[in-house]
Amino acid sequence: AHRRTFTAAEYVEGIVKGDTSILSQAVTLVESSRYEHQAIAQEVIEKCLPHACDSVRVGITGVPGAGKSTSIDAFGLHVLKRGGKLAVLAIDPSSERSKGSILGDKTRMEKLAIHPNAFIRPSPSAGSLGGVARKTRETIVLCEAAGYNNIFVETVGVGQSETAVHSMVDFFLLIQLAGTGDELQGIKRGIMEMADGIVINKADGSNIEKAKLAQAQFRNALHLFPPTPSGWTPQVLTYSGYYEIGIAEVWEMIDNYVAFVKKNGYFDYKRQEQAKYWMFETINEQLRDHFYRNPQIEKMLEEKQARVLNNEQSSFMAAKDVLDYYFNHIK
Ligand code: GDP
Description:
Strand 6, helix 9 (208-223) and strand 7 (235-238) form a beta-alpha-beta unit. Helix content is 53%, strand content 12%. The chain is globular. The chain is an alpha/beta fold. Helix 1 packs across helix 3 (35-48). The protein contains 13 helices and seven strands. The chain binds guanosine-5'-diphosphate.
């Protein structure tokens, strides 16, 4: 069916009223790479900013199978019981979607999917990690203007995307499983270092003892880490997303964190740092795009590459030539 398009002011009005259909359409504009869509999307974002509600943004990560969707369903219902609204967004830059489940897919969160106060949106479609993450960051602005005071950003725990999520959330939650033997194996130290809380899922039935053991190991490992910039000591808890055991305790930890960093000023400080980060990220991304998508530059890069590979020119001279051309001849 043909949808009529709205003006930026109409989008903003609909969003601020909490109209989820208009919100969805605005997110689609944010995600579009078409120039005319981007122009209006940027205007909508700008106009939504003053309407942002007081929110708590939580990043949730874990390897596939860790129980992210099951847990988000349970955590989500828990926060919604207290009132307010919840938006579940995702960052999945992988180009081969078919390989795994789609992050933020409604069918993965059965209870939230039918909750009137939950808004679930899958990851922007594959592109550069920076581009996908920026779109999710912008979608947060729209959701907060629509009154979504709880924001979850889900990502798959494979490395780089965690940094992107970390740069847009207040609390970073790492979901782990108790496995066989050395629990800490295979977890990138960097990811653990970012976590404000580590939660060991599937602590149910015969798995409880293993989960407790893993909890002790993670606690020991965290002791060896340098103090966090927030002054908060990351906690390690066990829970079961599926059987809904320990959900309230996980959320109590997040509440405690928020109270702690609001009191010591770190909450606002971090948000300001993130705002700066996204300004520079956007500049970097657009500069890169403008440069690499220019047909003349593309052609020149091909020629230069061949010359470098044939030892006809040094890498540095070739780069300098291309950049000189870009700065002097391209608008
Ligand atoms: P995701 O890939 O991280 O989103 O993981 P899912 O939420 O899809 O869960 C992966 C599998 O683990 C599913 O078969 C779930 O039913 C199961 N699972 C998730 N949470 C729990 C839990 O708390 N306990 C148990 N025993 N199984 C769970």
